[in-house]
Structures are given as C-alpha cells and as structure tokens.
Amino acid sequence: MAAGRRGDVHSESIDNYLKAVLSLGGPEEQRVTSTSLAERLGVAPASVTNMLQKLAAAETPLVEYERHKGVRLSAAGRRRALEVVRHHRLIETFLYEVLDYPIEEVHEEAERLEHFISERFEERIAAKLGHPKIDPHGHSIPTMEGEMPRRESIVLAEVMGVGTYVVESVSDRDAERLRQLEASGITVGARLEVRRGSAAEGYTVRVGRGLGDVEVSGETAREIRVVVGG
Ligand SMILES: [Zn+2]
Description:
It is a single chain. The protein is 39% helix and 20% strand. A six-stranded antiparallel sheet has the order 5-10-6-7-8-9. It has helices spanning 11-25, 34-41, 45-57, 75-97, 106-113, 119-128, 175-183, 218-221; strands at 5-6, 9-10, 63-66, 70-73, 154-155, 163-170, 191-198, 202-207, 213-216, 224-228.
C-alpha cells in the first residue's frame, strides 16, 4: 500500500500501532493495554488513547477499543498489520540474502521501507527469494493471504534445568544484542545446550560444538525462542 494520509493521521504511524497490537497480543491475540502500547511505541499514554479512539471510530474500524479493557485488532486491522509484517520480513530477507546486509542492520532499514513498497515490489522480492517462509531472524513471513503459521517454541527464559534446544528465532529489536548473539554463535538454527540457569539468574549455555560456555542474561533469554531437541 502506498504511503499517504488517512484523515489527519499518517498511515505510517497507523501501521506502527497495528503492528504493535499484533505483536503484543501474541498468538492468542489477547487484548493489549494502552500502557504497554505506550511503552512499545515510546509515546505518551494520552496519545495512545487518542489514536486508538480514532482507529476504532474509522469508517472501517481497525481496532476494537474499550478504555478499561484494552484493545485488539478488528479483521481489517489484522489484515493490514499482517501485510506490513509481511513487507517488513520480506525486506529483511532481501537485505540479508541479496544485499549482504549484516544481520543487526536489516531491522532498522525494514522499519523505514515497510510502509512504502508497492504490491508489485513486494511480489518481486518474494519471487526473487523463492517465496521464503522464514526471515533471517527466524520469524514466520505471513502469506499474501495474511496467514501466519504458528510454531511450537518457547522463550529461552521459560527453560528450567538442563537440556538441549535449537534456536528458532531471535528478536530483531535490539541491534547491539543481535550483534553480540551473532558473535557468540547464537543464531537461527544453532544448537544450545543449557548447562544451568534460570530466568532470574541468566543462563550458561554451550553453543553448537563450541567448547567454551556462553553466558546469556535473563533479559536476553526473553528475546530468544527455542524448540526442544537437537
Ligand atoms: Zn525486523
């Protein structure tokens, strides 16, 4: 969809609200509080309330919003959010695989470009990449039809006790953290042997066939999704 204005609100900022509601609601699409939205978007709670009221009152409402119950996406809002996420993840894959961007730089670039690419450009990228299903951070790319397959994984911070896991995905939001994880070999598909730890204390892991131990803080462990086995 082309960039532009809808009413007096930039569609770029609408997109960011819809994406944040989608992401914070999780796979169960739970209602999201305006406080958590304000935190995620880095804006004042009053602006969030204001925007949500506008989105709920639009001719085609993009969200369902009740002041004390929080917000969730309408069918139209969900469709739009998934389209932007598809753009974002295809752009990241393109930058990483075709343009050889470092992994920690693709997110910021995609945050800008996702609002502006045309449907034709999106289709060309997808075709060029062989219609990928996963982006370089391990996240599912929604289909053209707006479906995003759910995957059975847990965050590393939920792991208790020792065990062997495979990294399914790593959050793309913090470039510095991504760079450090990459340097430790903690990337999508890497095998992690959890040797000790907990969400409160952080984890000691062995990566792949590496001999040394790597320390992962509890905070970072919340940004890594893993599947059992490997
Ligand atoms: Zn990203």
